[in-house]
Amino acid sequence: MSNIQFPEDFLWGGAIAANQSEGAHLAGGKGLTTVDMIPYGENRMPIKLGQVDKVTLSEDEFYPSHNAIDFYHRYKEDIALLAEMGFKVFRISIAWSRIFPKGDELEPNQAGLDFYRDVFEECKKYDIEPLVTLCHFDVPMHLVNEYGSWRNRKMIEFFSRYARTCFENYKGLVKYWLTFNEINILLASPFSGAGLLFQEGENHDQVKYQAAHHELVASALVTKIAHEVDQQNQVGCMLAGGNFYPYSCKPEDVLMAMEKDRENLFFIDVQSRGYYPSYAQKVFDNKGVVLETQEEDFEILKNTVDFISFSYYASRCASADMNAGNTSAANVVKSIKNPHLPASDWGWVIDPIGLRITMNTLYDRYQKPLFLVENGLGARDTLDDNGEVNDDYRIDYLRQHIVAMHEAMEDGVPLMGYTPWGCIDLVAASTGEMSKRYGFIYVDRDNLGNGTLNRIPKKSFHWYKKVIASNGSDLA
Ligand code: BG6
């Protein structure tokens, strides 16, 4: 036992997302979404990054999201396992295209609404609080094909209709909401992040920042709607977090680190403060971006979030010349490789102190409670001769990060809860692999979809159960 003490109401849990877990990609009337079009293998990255002008399904490709880990049919078994670990909160996302299969309908799809109601009721059975992301890397494909996705202002209307439908239908069942998962990732990964494809010769920055503006207005508008529908609702933004360190103390490196941080924090600056930061105009000018806005947008933006949620896997590093070789791209955000830190098998650096630094930065900047909604180690787990997974490396990673997050809390940062990523093994967003596993629960499935889908608790399952039962004081 350590002397670490978390607040009594601290929300321990875990996180998954619809597109990486549910499968059943056309069941119950669901429409195709962006992620359903992203195959496993060499064609994955060009599509994710929006480097093609059209996406279609091909019989020669394997699409991991179509079956994923079949959470759609197995959610009762899965939630029971999470309850066994003592979960107090479970972060999931709603697939927009289950509720509005095409995205621009006026009436929702009842089968989709029923599915999530059942999931939320199952959570309530065990006193697990759902934390729900409205858009986790999945835009209905019809909206991409017909409207060009978030480059189009009409998306604000479609998204707010969808969000209102969710708030009204799940009133009393869900009170914690996130609008867009890792909203800043649309800059690095425009198709998977925001459904954006480009025409030849287009200024990509223009399209991306215009889409960002629409998402920011939509996020603020649905925050307002959430509060109107139920005063109990609390809405958060969601940042792919991790500070940039300067590669050296050269002022040029420090300046670059500040600018790279701003690229990401720009989104949260707007969502948390309610207006565009003063540095934005120069960024737009340099990139040749001219935003189309309407006067009402700036009134809407004043509806700020209640809390700041973020993911943290790794810190980042910047030098004056970001193309100076030696780069790594944890979570698709380009970074210089930090020589002082170890890395995972996928090159994501492991830096618990970076979590403490990130938390302090976010709280200094926004003065709103934080929620760490993703963190974890992607690793190749194997079953031993006894059919068990001894994932001590994961326990070690999580332990160090829990200590660091507690240290940040002692620094004075309020943290609402902790939902490590992929609490049940699921499909990796970047590579589409099943073999990049994060979970406390092993799922028998390989990169090409073979396997029984059986669930097997890992060693970390029993460890995390103790962590939760002791409210974070037993990390041994
Ligand atoms: C975050 C996403 O970017 O990182 C998740 O919100 C994703 O969807 C997670 O799965 C880990 O990344 P990956 O590529 O290892 O799955």
UniProtKB/TrEMBL annotation:
Active site: E374 (nucleophile)
InterPro entries on file: GH, GH_1_N_CS, Glyco_hydro_1, Glyco_hydro_1_AS
Domain of life: Bacteria
Family: Belongs to the glycosyl hydrolase 1 family.
Lineage: Bacteria, Pseudomonadati, Pseudomonadota, Gammaproteobacteria, Vibrionales
Record-listed E.C. numbers: 3.2.1.86
Protein name: 6-phospho-beta-glucosidase
Alphabetical list of PROSITE patterns matching this protein: GLYCOSYL_HYDROL_F1_1, GLYCOSYL_HYDROL_F1_2
Molecular-function GO terms, alphabetical: 6-phospho-beta-glucosidase activity
Keywords carried by this UniProt record: Glycosidase, Hydrolase
Biological source species: Vibrio echinoideorum
Encoding gene (name): ascB
